[in-house]
Prior knowledge:
The protein is α+β, with helices and mostly antiparallel strands and 566 residues long. Among the domains are: 54-177, PAS domain (Beta-Lactamase); 180-272, PAS domain (Beta-Lactamase, 2-Layer Sandwich), CATH 3.30.450.20; 399-564, Reverse transcriptase/Diguanylate cyclase domain (Alpha-Beta Plaits, 2-Layer Sandwich). The protein is 52% helix and 20% strand. It is built from 16 helices and 18 strands. It has helices spanning 6-31, 33-71, 74-82, 85-92, 96-99, 131-137, 181-191, 222-230, 270-321, 336-366, 381-398, 408-425, 439-446, 448-465, 490-506, 536-552; strands at 103-108, 113-116, 142-146, 154-162, 168-177, 194-199, 202-206, 209-210, 213-214, 235-241, 244-254, 260-269, 429-436, 472-477, 480-486, 521-528, 558-560, 563-564. The longest helix has 52 residues, at 270-321. The protein is flat, with a radius of gyration of 35 Å.
Amino acid sequence: MVKKSFKSKIIIPTVIVLVVLVIALNIFLSVGFSSLSDSLINEKLIANINSLNLYFDENKYNTSMASVSMAHNHDVINAVKDRDTTRLLQIFTPTHYLYRINYYTICDNEGTVLARTHEPDNFGDSVLHQQNIQDALDGRVSTYFEVGTTVRVSVRTGSPVYDANGTLIGAVSAGIRFDTDDEVEELKKLFNAEVTVFLGDTRIATTITVDGQSIVGTRIDPRIAEIVIEKKQEYSGAVNIHGEKYTSYYKPLLNAQGETFAVFFLGIPEAQTIAASTNLIRNGIIFGLGGLTVSILLLFFIISSISEPITKLSNDMNHIANGNLSVDITINSEDEIGHLGRSLQRITSNLQKLLEDINIMIGEHEKGNTDYCLDTELFLGDYKVLADSVLELATFSLNDQLTGIPNRRSFDNRLDWEWKRAIRDKSEISILVIDVDKFKNYNDAYGHQQGDVALKTIARITKESVKRLVDFVARWGGEEFIVLLPSTDSTGAVCVAERIRAKIENEVIPCADPGGTRITVSIGVHTQIPELSDLVGSFISVADRALYKAKETGRNRVVFGGENIG
């Protein structure tokens, strides 16, 4: 009986399997060619439909950004107020590329055009018939697909323009057009498909040509027009356009009244896709046969040297899979298996280092030390991505997203740690509870965005006002902040509180008013040498009661344990 070697046991069955697979693949590709072509066409169409919808969403976003941003531009407001067409064109024209739009229309509060960037010499007419303009002059920002005075099919956003007194003085409309040959040619490159734009049921721009001539002016198939225009439904299917078969998609564009005024068409010529599929299959077969030959040759030389190290690596990897990262992976060979073993060892080392650093960071964060972070620069590639993600998650969970300072959870961790240390060391610990005076009135007067600016300013000033690394500033919630001062007596705590109160009172916060605004805070202070029987909640409650005392006695002052300091 002839004894088969390990090499023959691997090579012979592998070669037989590969040969059978190549033969079966050729038969399968030949039999399934038609269905494959249809599948490829449909998949490409679905991808194009998704891309088209994303394209429209992006255009809506771009027009909205452009319109709203320019409507709030100080120079624009002055130019609209002065009805200065030349100045408006100078301001708006250079921003086309910035916001990736095609044109602007600027009008006064009566709807009379002051400037058009796409037709600089055409102004003075009314655009009140455009819904986005009507909405803007009613004080609303809106985005629609619309027919304009000079642009037949576009998406546009209108935004109101107010002067410094809050008086509506005009509107800015930003648009992206789809009705020119240049636009559809660019879209053809983007979607790798034929593109047509219909106004009603008539082609006004298209990339489809017959004998070198554009078929602009021809009409949509009445059967499809009934579905897309009258029923306002999308249509996908095979169509015949001037003798050529396309897999097509028709998308109705609805105006502000919800009526289909235009149709967008994407078409994939089936002949082109079939030719591409045939070429792909042919190349696949050629590469498959070539790969089969090379694989057989390589397999012959590799099999004899890989059995033992593969077995060891398999066992080592089982240990790793079971959570044992300390396994010793030692492969002495210098071939691919040796490199694989060393790479696997580096993987375990990186994971061990990452886990160790994460555990250290978790330990520090449990102590309230939110300044401790992973050094993600120690890692490369996906390990760095993972480390960055862990760091981002830790930062997100422990920091207030508006002000950037630690949040209440971080403060609770830090207070628990410092409280235990103060009990152990029998040392004083102080706390300041800070509340913004009449913050609701401030928000009502200047708006929530300006309120956010004020909160950020207070957080910055409070952070800058504490001097030691052990001092801890956090956002307690809403308009309340809290400061923890370990190893600080009542005199020092009141001094810090008064310094914070005075700096905030003297700070001028920029806002829409030319002179800016000022706000004040009330601060409750408490100092204690805690004992084991004391409760952290009671410690905070005393400072909270002092805060309420500061509010009741006139605000903008510091109160220590119920005693009015200033």
